[in-house]
Amino acid sequence: MALWGGRFKEKASVQFKKFNDSLPVDYRMAVQDIVGSIAWAQAIHEVGVLNDDELTRLTAALNELKVSVEENPKQILLSDAEDIHSWVEIQLIEKTGDLGKKLHTGRSRNDQVATDLKLWCKETGGDLLFALVNLQQAMMNLAEREKDTVLPGYTHLQRAQPVTFGHWCLAYVEMFNRDIGRLKDALYRLDVSPLGSGALAGTAYPIDRNALANRLGFRTATMNSLDAVSDRDHVIELLASASISMMHLSRFAEDLVFYNSGEGGFVEMSDLVSSGSSLMPQKKNPDACELIRGKAGRVFGSLTGMLTTMKALALAYNKDMQEDKEGLFDALDTWQECMEMAVLVADGLKVNRSRTLAAAQQGYANATELADYLVSKNIPFREAHHIVGEVVLAAIAEGCPLEDLTIAQLQTFSTQIEADVYQHLSIESTLDKREVLGGTSRSQVEKAMANIQSGNEEILNEQVAGAPGIQQTEIALKQVKQRLNAQRAAAMSVRRARMSDVNKIHQLVNVQADKGEILPRSLDNIIHDIQNFVVAELEGDVVGCASLYIYQTGLAEIRSVVVEDVAKSQGQGEALVQYLLEFAYQMELKQIIVLTYIPAYFTKLGFHLIDKNSLAENIIEDSEPSPHKDPADEVAMEYIVGQGK
């Protein structure tokens, strides 16, 4: 059944119907179409198109259909409906008769498909954020395991300077972190509702489009109906985000294919992600990495195809836009599958530490250290560079590393070279000198891992960015961890509060205040402090909140941490606190305190007990004791931003 037959004398040909129909692709948006239809039914009820009974019947039928689709989405493919919108309407008419025909009043398939696709993108984007965070965590785990492992670093695929394997891992953590930022930016921009834009000129019914948008979980409604129905920027942005991330994954895969080769022998892939040869029984092929590398081109193709489709389309909607979904669905599925496969690869990777160390000791990777040594003897770097080049030539002729040349041999190139030179030419010395932020020393990698977790402000201010070292790798590992916690919180739908959240926050806080768990907050107080609140959402509903109260430069208190019972086992409370800790880091705060009756909860998040009497009087005065609790049970705890656990 088509929704547009009245204008035509003849039926479309079977060949055209097959060419035109999109149901085999857009059936994946069935739930989104039903959710949008429920919201639209409420909207046209509010303007008098539907009465109360009609709204109840339509909503019940749509909810029943939604449950059926969630249980068996493939049932849709048995239909000969043109698209998912037709299928939903046909099912609704079968359930409610002529009443089902009223639902499309004031609505077009143009704004309907635009809304469905944005709802699908929002939901899928959340899954992709989780996959990216999990991938970062897998690389963090690998960096932790191999933070002391020496690895030859390369430029031009030639051995250059030694780094640590942990430092290599953290390079990809940084790439994936940028991927998270791009994805979040794209999801923010697409979070506007086109519903109510009609075919191109808006609807003739006085729909409150912002209320409709909020009902669907969008932050607002679109501002121009022509743009709303013909905008596919969100598709292009998501494809671009996927393409850049797949480029990063492909580089990761290529590195490991090279490291895994017989010529490299630095790593061995797990059997779980490898295959063999049908002819050569000795072969163990890194197929997972090769497929990740190969699938990158497939995702790039979807982006190129969509850009080409959109480049010459006049306003407003054109049927060309039906080509948006197949490439998008395939690209995002591929991206997520490759991220999940990369996690398996990282989890099972075995590093041959003796082989990586031996390789790092070859190729005169310590030549730069000899040049730096000469600079310390007041020889200009350019001259030192030339001298070391001659030394390397001599070592190649002798067939030995630099450190095996005798003092007499070295002094033929410069009399400034003395016996202390050898302590500068060891692998340990080469690595440990890379103490700057971003360097490859073991301690710096450790610190980096913690500070991405806790945002170590002191290290960020004191270090100079840029170089690779074993101490710097430790710094990097510490830095990564807080950032991952904050990203995980964002992926769990924790966000900054808006004015539209005020009433819900007031309700959440005062329900707990009535139980004596926290202090009450007035509505006016919440309104004036809304910029310091964050909220947690579950399926579009606000289920938790928390706030950061700033006392003075460097000091703040986390207050009003509340999570509804339905969300308490899903990590929303922890996510709220982690989000605020990252917010505190961005605000350049140094000390975060809590006054709590449940210290064990905050201990898990990196807080430590402190003497309550050490707090300033105004802090104690602000914290009135609960009439339902023993004041002696309330303890003070602190979190030093940048240190965490």
TrEMBL record:
<feature type="domain" description="N-acetyltransferase">
    <location>
        <begin position="492"/>
        <end position="642"/>
    </location>
</feature>
<dbReference type="InterPro" id="IPR000182">
    <property type="entry name" value="GNAT_dom"/>
</dbReference>
<dbReference type="InterPro" id="IPR011244">
    <property type="entry name" value="ASAL_AGS_AcTrfase"/>
</dbReference>
<dbReference type="GO" id="GO:0004056">
    <property type="term" value="F:argininosuccinate lyase activity"/>
</dbReference>
<keyword id="KW-0012">Acyltransferase</keyword>
<keyword id="KW-0963">Cytoplasm</keyword>
<dbReference type="Pfam" id="PF00583">
    <property type="entry name" value="Acetyltransf_1"/>
</dbReference>
<dbReference type="InterPro" id="IPR022761">
    <property type="entry name" value="Fumarate_lyase_N"/>
</dbReference>
<dbReference type="InterPro" id="IPR000362">
    <property type="entry name" value="Fumarate_lyase_fam"/>
</dbReference>
<keyword id="KW-0808">Transferase</keyword>
<comment type="similarity">
    <text>In the N-terminal section; belongs to the lyase 1 family. Argininosuccinate lyase subfamily.</text>
</comment>
<dbReference type="InterPro" id="IPR020557">
    <property type="entry name" value="Fumarate_lyase_CS"/>
</dbReference>
<dbReference type="InterPro" id="IPR024083">
    <property type="entry name" value="Fumarase/histidase_N"/>
</dbReference>
<keyword id="KW-0456">Lyase</keyword>
<dbReference type="Pfam" id="PF14698">
    <property type="entry name" value="ASL_C2"/>
</dbReference>
<keyword id="KW-0028">Amino-acid biosynthesis</keyword>
<dbReference type="InterPro" id="IPR016181">
    <property type="entry name" value="Acyl_CoA_acyltransferase"/>
</dbReference>
<dbReference type="Pfam" id="PF00206">
    <property type="entry name" value="Lyase_1"/>
</dbReference>
<comment type="similarity">
    <text>Belongs to the lyase 1 family. Argininosuccinate lyase subfamily.</text>
</comment>
<dbReference type="InterPro" id="IPR009049">
    <property type="entry name" value="Argininosuccinate_lyase"/>
</dbReference>
<keyword id="KW-0511">Multifunctional enzyme</keyword>
<protein>
    <recommendedName>
        <fullName>Argininosuccinate lyase</fullName>
        <ecNumber>4.3.2.1</ecNumber>
    </recommendedName>
</protein>
<dbReference type="InterPro" id="IPR029419">
    <property type="entry name" value="Arg_succ_lyase_C"/>
</dbReference>
<dbReference type="InterPro" id="IPR008948">
    <property type="entry name" value="L-Aspartase-like"/>
</dbReference>
<keyword id="KW-0055">Arginine biosynthesis</keyword>
<comment type="pathway">
    <text>Amino-acid biosynthesis; L-arginine biosynthesis; L-arginine from L-ornithine and carbamoyl phosphate: step 3/3.</text>
</comment>
